[in-house]
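note to self: dont lose this again. the chain is below, predicted strucutre after it. 319 aa total, dont forget to put it in the shared folder this time
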Amino acid sequence: MPEAGEGSLHESVMVSEVLENLDIGEGGKHLECGVSTGGHLLEIASRLGANGFALAIDLDEDALSIAQKRLEDKGISCKIEFICGNYADLSVHLSQKGIEPGFFDTALLDAGVSGFQLKGDRGFSYSRDLPLDMRYGKAQKVTAESILNGADVGELRRIFAEYGDLHDAAKVAWAIYTARQHTQLATTGDLVKALQDVYPERMPHGKRMRRLGQVFMAVREAVNEGQRCLEGGIDNSIQYLRKDEGRFALLTFSGNENLIMKRIAARYRRPGKFNPDWVLKKVTNRAVKPTRDEVRRNPASHSAMLRVFKKLPVSKVEV
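---
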């Protein structure tokens, strides 16, 4: 199990805003998807108290182990169960535990890659030369190396356009394809080098870092099927909330993630096949963003957006 030293801990984003909008009550039942090293969960579990219950799921077994030890060391009295798995498969995990839809009072899904992962050895960031892995879970078979060396130009272009929102996705795809004709891309440094003509060092530093960040984000999404998993995680989380005022909070970090939430929110705005007796309403009319103080303290939070929704029975709303 990794040591939960201060350098290992991911700094969770907008903790106070999450707590305020979820309105965590003592003795409640909470679901958390994308736990990382447990920053949000620690504060939420503290408020649930001895009669509360929390279930936490994350695909990264190392981060999950740190979160578990962190809460144990704090002496949290709330009962907590941890699941190492994909939140896209949440319904399977919960049904195995005998938990039925409508069980939880609150749910939080954090869609971001954590600082713990960015600082780790799986090549999530361009800041260090490491193997092109980028898997959230070690049991996953597809790696960044296999995608970058195996996908054709058209597929690479789609990945960078769809997942990275890169307007020059075709140039990025062709640069990678050309580079791998000479030698296989094996490390993050190889990937950065392959893009040196697309994003040369003479570019303004901030702009170059943003573009490389978008490239790495797109590859991470492709490796971990991020959009499919996010859609499944959001949908399952909502289904497992109680229909009378159950609250769901989502932390996103990209435009594509926001679009997924908007589609699901629109689907459940009125009663339908999968929600005949409840609807989903906004708690936050607009996305909540981190304060300037938080962004100064934690620059990684600058793109974060928090949206909160609640389930209501049809009998209580005009639809």
